[in-house]
Amino acid sequence: MAISSSSCKLPLVAVCQVTSTPDKQQNFKTCAELVREAARLGACLAFLPEAFDFIARDPAETLRLSEPLGGRLLEEYTRLARECGLWLSLGGFHERGQDWEQTQKIYNCHVLLNSKGAVVATYRKTHLCDVEIPGQGPMCESNSTMPGPSLESPVSTPAGKVGLAVCYDMRFPELSLALAQAGAEILTYPSAFGSVTGPAHWEVLLRARAIETQCYVVAAAQCGRHHEKRASYGHSMVVDPWGTVVARCSEGPGLCLAQIDLSYLRQLRQHLPVFQHRRPDLYGNLGHPLS
Ligand SMILES: O=C(O)CNC(=O)[C@H](CS)NC(=O)CCC(=O)C(=O)O
């Protein structure tokens, strides 16, 4: 592979694609192998999909398998990040929050760990996927999950400023706009996308979010069959701020890598200054300040 001298210095990110099952230990093993491979290949930040911890058969099992942020599974990931010396986007952890005792419901929590394994940010999915798509089986995330209360300010990482979201959130451009206006350079949508909406919407939505925010978009996805009742679309990818798909995973579990070029991003934003052309006088400031 030819790498020019200037691109050698660009940070490399890894996008991991897995098929989670209800077996948490096995899922951890699979994810850990991919993260170690990402580190060997020189990535500074690895992205895992929504439900990297497990995909259960029903809401009761989801609740039973869930853990608090201070639980054993996150401890294992802390050690993994430290051992590999890279940052980890854990794209959707089934989290027993502070209010677990009262609500008996969880949060779909995107956790960002630094290379020392410390939790630097959490974002709890704000748009829950309660939909009935013919041919896909009903999804009612709110059976087990509470919506998060707020957006999270973009976080500085070795690859750029990362704005956190989860899966179904990608259908709400207001959120991506808010994160971009708050300084995001990389938007990330860890996902477990359905097999009917996937072929129709997945790539279009991700590329649209990249083009309109002029951010890199990183989407780590679940793929394949999780159990008798559920399968996911896969097609993990990285899109650059021009809308080009610069990396994609193949069909099964695995990873793909992309360089993040922030000087390209800045140049593009200068050439095509859409953020300066917005007309909040006509439609309001849709990207509300985060806090
Ligand atoms: O269930 C879990 O354990 C983890 N959560 C998910 O898989 C969520 C809720 S069911 N999936 C989605 O949001 C798919 C969205 C989608 O497919 C679309 O927007 O078309």
TrEMBL record:
UniProt-listed SUPFAM superfamilies: Carbon-nitrogen hydrolase
UniProt KW Phosphoprotein keyword: no
Alphabetical list of Gene3D superfamilies matching this protein: Carbon-nitrogen hydrolase
UniProt KW Signal keyword: no
A molecular function (GO) term: deaminated glutathione amidase activity
Similarity-based family: Belongs to the carbon-nitrogen hydrolase superfamily. NIT1/NIT2 family.
Name assigned to this protein: Deaminated glutathione amidase
Species in which this protein is naturally found: Macaca nemestrina
Top-level taxonomy: Eukaryota, Metazoa, Chordata, Craniata, Vertebrata
